What we know:
By secondary structure, the protein is of the alpha/beta class. It has one domain (6-11, 36-77, 115-314): UDP-N-acetylmuramoyl-L-alanine:D-glutamate ligase, CATH 3.40.1190. The chain is 36% helix and 23% strand. It is built from 11 helices and 15 strands. The protein has a 9-stranded mixed β-sheet, sandwiched between helices. Strands 3-2-7-8 form a 4-stranded mixed β-sheet. Strands 5-6 form a two-stranded parallel sheet. A hairpin with a 2-residue loop joins strand 7 (90-97) and strand 8 (100-106). The model is unreliable at 309-315 (pLDDT under 50). Keywords: ATP-binding, Kinase, Nucleotide-binding, Transferase.
Amino acid sequence: MTAGGLLTFGETMAVFSTDSGRLRHASTVNVGIAGSESSVAIGVRRLGVGASWAGRVGADEPGSLVLARIRDEGVDVSAARTDQYAATGLMLKDFRAADSMRVAYYRHGSAGSRLCAEDLCEDRIRAAGVLHLSGITPALSESAADAVHAAIDVAQEADVPVSFDVNYRHALWPPEDAQDVLRELVTRADIVFAGEAEARLLGLEGSAEDLAGALAALGPEEVLVKLGPRGAVAELGGLRYDVPVYPVRAVDPEGAGDAFAAGYLADRLAGAPPDRRVRTAAACGAFAVSVAGDADALPDRDELNELAGPITIVR
C-alpha cells in the first residue's frame, strides 16, 4: 500500500438531468455532480483507498451540493475553496431520443475556472501517493493551467508520481490550441491515460499498440490507451498488456474513462501488480457505463468480483 493516497483537483459542476425526454418537458429532474477529477477520487475511495479532492466552488447551493456529495463519499475536501465572486458551474443533460443524450455546460467564468496556483496546498501534494490531473483543467483558464504545472513542479520535487488523463474536450478548446499543451503534460507525467483519438490528437499515429509505445516514448513509465468497447492496451514498465473487455449493456458512456483511471490508480496505490491493475480498470469502466450518471455506478471491491476475466501479456 502506497502511503498518502490520491490527491486531485479540478472543476466539479452541479448536474440537472432527466430520465428521458427533453428538459423542457420535465416536471422533475435528477440532481447530481460531475467532474472528472472528483469522479476519479470517488472511484478510488470506493475501492478502499484514501483520496482527496481540491478545487473551487461558488458560495451558492450548487457549490454546497458539490462539497456535500464528494464529502459523503469519504473523499477529503478540506482543501477545497469557496469563491465569493463566481458561481458554481452547471451541466444540463436531457434526451432527444431513447439513445441520444444532449449535454449543455454553463461554466464560463465559473468558480472552478478561477482555480489558480495559489489555491494549491504544497504540503498535501508532497504527502500524496499519486497526484492525478486531467486535460480539462488547463483548458478552463490560464490560471488553471498554471495551477496544473505548479502542482507537477511540487510533485516532481517530492518524487510523487504524476497521473495525467488527456481527457480532451472539444467544447473547451480547439485541437490546434490543445495539442501542444496536452503533449507537454504527457511528457511531464509518470502515468498517462488516453483514448485512441486523443493520442492521435497529440500527433501520434499507427495502431493502438503503436500509440501506446509512442506515448511511452514521450516519457511516462505507465501508459494506458482506452479503446472503448474494444478494451484497452497498456504499456507498463516496458511490458505490453491487452486489457480485457467486459460485456455490459451501455446506458451512459459519461464517466467510463474516469472509472477506468480510478480502478487502475486504486490498485496501484494498494500495491497490486500490473495485471490486476488493468483488470480492475476495465471492470470499473464497464460498471460505469451500465448506469446513468458520472459517479453513480462506480463499484466497490465486492462488486468487482462479478466481472472476472483473464489478462494477456504481449511481450
